[in-house]
């Protein structure tokens, strides 16, 4: 994912499916460097990680 798309998802009132290494995550914060973000697992609010935005993947749901 690129920084601009991460910003759009982070700022949107809609819910998007985003994954990191195949695990569903929420974006908590985008860092000023434009390369990293803080995320947490959807099932665990306590476990946060700083990851490369390029490693985040938007999952497209089939409806």
UniProtKB/TrEMBL annotation:
It is found in: Spore core. InterPro entries: SASP_SspH. It comes from the Bacteria. GO terms for biological process: asexual sporulation; sporulation resulting in formation of a cellular spore. Its main location: other. Keywords: Sporulation. Belongs to the SspH family. This is Small, acid-soluble spore protein H.
């Amino acid at each position: 994912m690129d920084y601009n798309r991460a910003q759009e998802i982070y700022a949107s009132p809609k819910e998007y499916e985003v994954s990191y290494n195949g695990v569903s995550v929420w974006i908590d914060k985008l860092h000023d460097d434009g390369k990293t973000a803080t995320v947490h697992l959807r099932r665990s609010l306590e476990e946060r990680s700083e990851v490369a935005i390029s490693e985040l993947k938007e999952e497209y749901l089939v409806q």
